[in-house]
Structure formats: C-alpha cells, structure tokens
Amino acid sequence: MDNNATTQVAPEVLEEMLPYFSEFYGNPSSMHTFGGMVEQKIVEARERLARLLSASPEEIIFTSCGTESDNTAIRAAILSNPDKKHIVTSRVEHPAVKNLFEYLAKNGYRVTFVPVDRKGLLDLDYLYKNLSEDTAVVSLMWANNESGVIFPIEEIGTVLKEKGIVFHTDAVQAVGKIPIDLKHVNVDMLSLSGHKLHGPKGIGALYVRKGTKFSPFLIGGHQEKGRRGGTENAASIIGLGKASELAVRNISSENIRVKKLRDKLETEILNRIPNAMINGDREDRLPNTTSIAFEFVEGESILLMMDEYGICASSGSACTSGSLEPSHVLRAMGVPFTAAHGSVRFSLSIYNTEEEVDFIIEKLPPIIERLRELSPFWKKAL
Amino acid sequence: MWEYTKTVKDHFLNPRNVGIIEDADGVGEVGSLACGDALTLYFKLDDHKRIKAVKFQTFGCASAIASSSALTEMIKGLTLEEAEKITNDDIAQFLGGLPKQKMHCSVMGRDALEKAISNYRGEAEKKVEGEIVCECFGVTDIEIERAVRENNLTSIEDVTNFVKAGGGCESCHDKIQQIIDETLGREPKAKKKGARLTNIQKIKLIEETLDREIKPALKKDGGNIELVDVDGNHVLVKLQGTCAACSAAEITLKHYVESKLRELVAPELLVEEVQS
Question: What is the CATH number of the domain that holds B136?
Fold first, then answer.
C-alpha cells in the first residue's frame, strides 16, 4: 500500500531483463553483432516507452532516475535561455525539483512558487499573472506524490505554448497511472521513473519534444545521440521498456479496479474512524492514492503499529522524516497541524487485492482508537 | 526507518501506566499539537512522600510514547528529591538508547516531570525564563544552554535533536551557535565566509578588489580595467589601454579577473567584457 514510494518489479519485466545481465552483456555501442543485439533491444524499449506517452522514440532520453531527468530538463531550459532569469514552479513539488529551484534561487534566479488551495489544486491565476518575458521555464508536477492531486497540465501547456515559455513536467507519479498523450498535450519536457511503474530502480527517462532546445546534463560519449553521456544501463532500459508495454495494457484496470479498491479503503476508513478526513481534491486525483488525516494522533505511531501487521504505508508527519515539521505539501495545502501530523498515505497498485484492503479496514480503526486513548488531546476535543 | 531498540518498541507497543489520575498531587503538561508531540504526566504520593502512582498521556511518535512510558516506570517508588535527579540521558539509557534525532523525546519526559514536581510544590508556574531564541518551537536561550551543558552538545544539529530549536525556519541558527560557543567557553567562530552579500556590499567589494588586486597588475602591462555594471552575478567590465587591443584579453578576463573576484568576493561571479 506504499506504491507511490516504489512498486513491485513485474515478473514479466524481470524475466525480460535477466538475460542482459548474464548472456547478453554486450555494449550497445559496439560494432559487432554481440553488442548490436543489445542495441536492438534498446531500440525496442524506446519504442515501447514512446507508445505509452504517444511520443516518437527519438524524443526519449534514458537517464538514471526521475531526479536526473528533472535536473537535466530544468538545467537544459535555463541554459538555452541564458538571458532569462525568472523560473516558475509550485509549492508542492518533489524535492528533486523543489530543492533544485531553491538552489537556483540562491544563484541569481528569481523564483515564483505557485501556491495551491486547501484541496491541493494549483492557483492558475497566480501562475499566469506571474509569467513574463523573463520566464525561462515553468516546471510543474503532473500529479502529486502525497495527495495524488492532478494538475491541469494540458490547459497550462496550451497557455505556455502561446507565450513561448518552456514547459517541463515531473510526471513521475502520473506515468502508468493515468493516460498521457503527448500528441495533444503541449509539454516540452517530461520526466518519469522506472520503479514507479513496476520497472526496476535506477532507470528513468526524459521526454524532450522535437525542436526543444536542449543541452546535456551528463557530458560524455555519443550515447542517447549525445544528449546523455554514459554507457547505457541496458538491462534496466529493457526492463523499463517492458514495464511501459505492460502499463499500456494495464492502464484501464488501474483506473477501474485499483480505483475501486482505493475508494473502498477510503470510504470504509472514513465510515469507521471519526475525526478523519481526506487531504486533497477527491476528483482530480490519481486513481491509486489517498492521503487521510487522523486528528490528535501522530503519523509515525500509526505507521509502526500498522507495520506490526505487515501493512506498509507512509506519512507526511514530521517524525517519520527526521525533520520537525510536517511535509511541505500538507503545509502548502494549509492542512491544520492537528491533522497534518497524523496524515497517512495509502497508494495502491494492480497487485493489491480486495483481501488486503479488507485487512486494513479491520486493523486500522483499533490502532487509531488506541493511539487516541494515549493522546492527551483526544478527550479534550470531544 | 528508525532503528529503535527492543525496549523502545516494547514500551511503544505496550506502554505502561497510560491514563490520568483525577486527584493527582502533581500534574505536568509539556508540548503542543502544533509541535507534533505533547505529554501530560500525573503522580500521586503515599504517606512517606514517595511516588505511589503515576500515569501519562502522550501525543507523538513511537519514541515519545516510549520515553513517557519509561519515565513512569523509572520514578515509581521514588521520593521527589530522587525523581528530580533523573536526566533526559537517564531516560534514553533506560530505553537502550534513542536515535539522535529523537533525543528531544527524552527531554520532553524530563521537562514534564519537572513541571509536575513544581506543580505539587505549589511553585507558581515557572515563567518562561530567558528569551525565546527559536520562534518556531518556542525554545528559550536558557533551555538551549541547559541542553548544551548537560549533554555536551557541540553543533546546531545536536541542539535541534535535543530541544528542537532551529528545526523550523532556521533563522535562529546564528544565535544558537553563539549560545553553544559561549556555553562551551569557545571563542565565537569568525563570521562564515561567503555569507551572502547585499548588492551594495557586493559592488563595493568588487570595486575594492579591482582597485587593490587587479588594476595594479594590469597596469604593469600597460592596461587597465573599468567596472561598468553589476547585474546579479554578472560583472560587466571594460578593458582599456593595451588590454583592449590584446588578443589575450579574454584569457585575462576569464582566468585572472574572474578567479580573483571569485576568490575575494563571491564564488558565483561571472565576468563579461563590454565593448566600448
């Protein structure tokens, strides 16, 4: 139930990868047939991933992870627009984007962090109002990792295209969970990560629309057409290709079966546990994610008690991260402290079953009740 | 995932002495919902003035609950004078140790005990002593100084781990460093190099550096340099005399002027030549 953190590698993916660790270890750049065989599989993987995004294979660059894709895209955008010193993102981005923007803010860039409302929805007026001739890039996540809230990337893309501003989206949480059709959505660059869609860890990709000015982040050999140096992580690229093929096939079940399980989990928890609420908009949301706040209890305690039953989830509470403040996403949404500290995220995948959902529905209410009995604020609040 | 000891897990999953004592002799409340943890401690004394019963309620993470539970077990049967001697380190040791980032949980236990004892003795609620240093978590200089002294803390990170101060907006970090230095009797560190300059400071410093370090060197070769403008980190300059016509001008700019300015003013500066 923690699939926004990472997912199980699909058995089909593993099977497809294994020979490229042992038998077929050739370098895809080599002139001989032994390396060429690997090159062919990489070509196939690129096509499979392109199909998932409705993109062309030449528009795909393989990277080592989502973070590298984000860094590459944003740095490429600002290097291609050296005279522009203003960059835009949201307040709820993943650290891969958030911390890079904070770094750039310290290094001469003017940064606009677009706020979100109580439901986690982006303030579009604020975004549009702050765009100017000086804006080098807008980087907005497609879907939020904590709340699951989806931003209107298509609409924003249309506006940014008119203004001629480079648009990057961190779609790490969106790819494989919701349909993405880059023929009809105007984004210039898009980041994704293999291990969020049942591929292996250590592989990511960056989509760069044909005609977008680009400069590599890793400067080196001719790999990826000179756009990312370094010998290809062949087995993982092949794994990501297979995972993309499976995602094309599974995306409707993700949206129907997984959503049904998520809805059951969420509805039953709200029915059975008082003083609980959903963080984030319930409509514009990933089908697999729910973030639930339990008032007057603390997230780490909930997680560890669930862990005793083998239930895995995550929390936006301060204590789980080692920092002292709850997650920047929940704070940006204005979730009150009483609820933010007790927020738990469940994120499902196609491998979750109804039995697992029922198990949580049974085990969670007594856990919350027990922790509330321990809490000095609970009785006072009643 | 945190590395909790078996004892911590045991006291978290099976906390001892949970609840409230309606007719308690002493009650101590610390923390708040906003801070992310809070503890209320109750005790009752017997005829020999020993702690007969003790109960607690805690809102917080596993280590906060375990620290509270441990504390209640530790003070049962003690006189108040004995209980008073318990330090946060004793609580942590009873639990077989706590992760560093969680030491503030043991400090919370000690604070609640102190408050409950003063409550019993009828001492007026101790006024917030000292001056608030960390606004985010409401921590005073006296509290920070005490944590530093009792636990031999040497860094801001340590202080945050023990009393939370500095864990929010971080604007108090300079003050915390000063308290650490004073408490440990150290000479305050020289102001951090590379602390951010205001624009005016930056421009002044660039001018000074040009006059003192760069112009004399260029003049030796019959050249000179003039500062035209500073735009963010871009330093716009005009080369004069021999320099202007010299084919090595670009090398001079990049390698000499820029590296000098980066070394002496700010590492992110970029020097650009403006044609006259």
Answer: 1.10.10.1100
C-alpha span between B118 and B41 (Å, rounded): 12
Interface test with B, best of A331, A374, A378, A380 (most B CBs within 10 A): A374
pTM over 0.90: no
* Chain B residue numbers touching A108 (CB-CB < 8 A): 232-233, 268
Range of the domain at A69: 11-247
Same domain, B208 and B169: no
CATH number at residue B90: 3.90.1010.10
Q: Is residue A100 part of a domain?
A: yes
ipTM for the predicted complex comes to: 0.84
* Tens-digit pLDDT profile for residues B198-249: 888 888 888 888 888 888 877 877 778 888 888 888 888 887 776 666 656 6
CB burial readout B196-234, b (16+ within 10 A) else e? eeeeeebbeebeebbeeebeeebeeeebbbeeeebeebe
CATH code for position A87: 3.40.640.10
C-alpha dist (Å) from residue B189 to B147, B148, B167, B172, B181:
20, 17, 21, 16, 8
Q: Count CA atoms closer than 13 A to A254's CA, side-chain side.
A: 23
End-of-domain residue from the set A211, A230, A247: A247
Rounded Cα–Cα distance for residues B188 and A313 (Å): 45
**Shortest Cα–Cα distance, B216 to chain A (Å):** 30
